[in-house]
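Service request form, structural biology core

Requester: graduate student, group of Dr. S.
Request type: structure prediction, single chain
Budget code: on file
Notes: please return the result as structure tokens.

Sequence provided:
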Amino acid sequence: MRGRDPLQASLDLLVEGLTSRVMQLVDEFPMYGTSPLLRGWIDRCRARAGGDEAAPLALADLRRARGLTQAEVAVRARMSQSDLSKLERRGDMRLSTLRLFARALGGRVRVLFERRGRACELRVDGPSASQLQNPRPRTRRRRARPEGRA
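Core staff response, request fulfilled:
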């Protein structure tokens, strides 16, 4: 049984070092890693290096992993490209906005509640179970009439 080819081992180390350096530079200067092909390659390298558990992704990373531009997703989400850019950078957003983004990428949003090592998926897309069991009658409020009118 022969050992690993020294030339191949050297090449692997060189590529691994180059990959790490490229990923580091893209993290430091994100404007240079905007090519969908480059981002896809970087995401695949990170997935290989990261092990089994996937790291949380930013919205822009999800879009890039699908190989889509902001303009393409904006058309699907019925918003402007500049609004989509702002959405990708936003730290806090409504679930409805996140659902819109997910639908534009062909996915859906699931909300997970975790406490003390236990997790359960929350239903956030419709009425709650208590609302279904005890529906409140919908009443229309009457506007107060101004004095002097009958």
